[in-house]
Specification:
The protein has about 150 residues and is mainly alpha-helical. It has a domain of about 100 residues. Helices cover about 45% and strands about 10% of the residues. The protein is built from four helices and three strands; from the N terminus they run βββαααα. It has a three-stranded antiparallel β-sheet. Helix 1 runs antiparallel to helix 2 and helix 1 runs parallel beside helix 3. The longest helix has 22 residues. The protein is elongated, with a radius of gyration of 21 Å.
Length: about 150
Amino acid sequence: MDFLGWRIQRHRKRGTHRSYVYTYPSKKALHAAMVKVKTLCRQIDTNLPLDALLLRLNSLLRGWTAFFRPGVSNATFQYLSAYVWRRVIGWIRRKHPRISWKDLRRRYCDGRWWPRGQEVELFQAGAVRTTRYRYRGSVIPSPWPPKAA
């Protein structure tokens, strides 16, 4: 079942008869984020510095990962991170069509592989730690006062 961008599924735990509910980011939500990344990379002119693109992308990625953090989202974050990397590198390649990979990495990645502008580094969605909801049971405070004896 899909609800508010989440794919909610029930899986049986291996070796037992107990089942648990898992929440994943839905494919529709992931696709919507990818379309936004693609349009941003097409809208930002290549005459602008890389920082202009990275600022817009970072705000989008931070918000998206913060929303989907409390679930089974690690693989989705890794996939989105790889997609954004390809898009940003493609934008740089359009900006400098004849640049070699060695010069691209030296100029825009500080000799590594992750894009970085003058002041801003591309947000790594794959590095975001996911959290899971814990069962709190009786620890949840009751809104009613205890009965007087």
